[in-house]
Design goal:
globular; 11 strands; about 280 residues; 10 helices; alpha/beta; two-stranded antiparallel sheet; about 25% strand
Length: about 280
């Protein structure tokens, strides 16, 4: 079972001050480095950050009282920085590792400081026994080496969280596992988010989360369908049964844990600042 510490007001205020000082120091340093021949650096207080709506990055920006633009996805946040419509972005460190720097889609963007540390999990409907089934599948995949192999395939092996021993416990009534087996499809809510869920050259969904979701569907004996959702509406999508699980590098925030029945954490992550590389 996942537990999440409740943060008191004093701790929130302290975090705001620490996060703001960290971000301002980082952005000021990067701006001065890139100012070149006398170009005036932008005041960090005036900088605008692109963040995905409904994401942990948006939460961080709100807590730090930063100026920000909410966009549809973390990929859109990177596009905003590359296009110059935002000064910086706040995204997941795992995505940053796959998407920015030399040899990636955004070679002219660079990694700034880490703002928070966090963990990923998948989310099911409140009371859903699918959570228990996923936990068992992840534990078994760890034991037989599948989890490590999939992680190595997508370069996230260093971020794996050890899976506790888990045994599936079916609900006596209103079982999501029975419901999914009856309809024959596990519907997975995602956004395009490398290296967790993204399309290959043939338009097929791949990634660490996508591969593990397919494994769960295989164990259930059903097909796996991926549906792109509005991340800000993920809880509504679950509750309306438009999807069965949110599995897309989802940070286990207090709000998520209260609104969903979440799996055991499976990956470590962080929220990081992305900036244009110094010229």
């Amino acid at each position: 079972m996942i537990t999440h510490k409740r943060i008191d007001l004093g701790e929130i205020i302290m975090k705001k001050k620490l996060f703001k000082a960290l971000a301002i120091a980082l952005v000021a340093g990067m701006a001065l480095t890139g100012c070149g021949g006398g170009e005036k650096a932008k005041d960090p207080a005036d900088m605008v950050y692109a963040v995905e709506a409904g994401s942990a990055g948006e939460t961080v920006a709100m807590e730090m009282e930063m100026k920000y633009n909410s966009v549809g996805s973390q990929a859109d946040a990177l596009m905003a920085v590359a296009a110059g419509t935002s000064d910086a972005a706040i995204i997941d460190s795992l995505m940053a590792g796959a998407m920015i720097g030399e040899g990636t889609s955004y070679p002219d963007l660079t990694l700034g400081d880490m703002l928070t540390e966090e963990k990923y999990g998948a989310g099911c409907r409140v009371g859903s026994d699918l959570t228990s089934f996923i936990n068992q599948t992840m534990y078994e995949a760890q034991q037989d080496g599948t989890l490590q192999a999939v992680a190595e395939k997508y370069g996230v092996q260093a971020s794996l969280v050890e899976q506790p021993e888990s045994v599936f416990a079916a609900s006596e009534a209103d079982s999501d596992v029975a419901y999914i087996k009856d309809k024959g499809t596990l519907v997975v809510g995602i956004t395009e988010f490398a290296p967790m869920d993204y399309k290959d050259e043939n338009g097929n969904w791949i990634g660490f989360d996508a591969d593990m979701a397919r494994l769960v569907a295989e164990k259930l004996g059903v097909a796996c369908e991926f549906v792109v959702i509005d991340w800000d509406l993920k809880i509504m999508e679950l509750d309306s049964k438009s999807i069965d699980v949110v599995w897309n590098g989802m940070t286990l925030t207090q709000g998520v844990l209260e609104a969903m029945n979440c799996t055991n954490a499976y990956c470590n992550n962080a929220q990081v600042i992305i900036l244009p590389a110094a010229k």
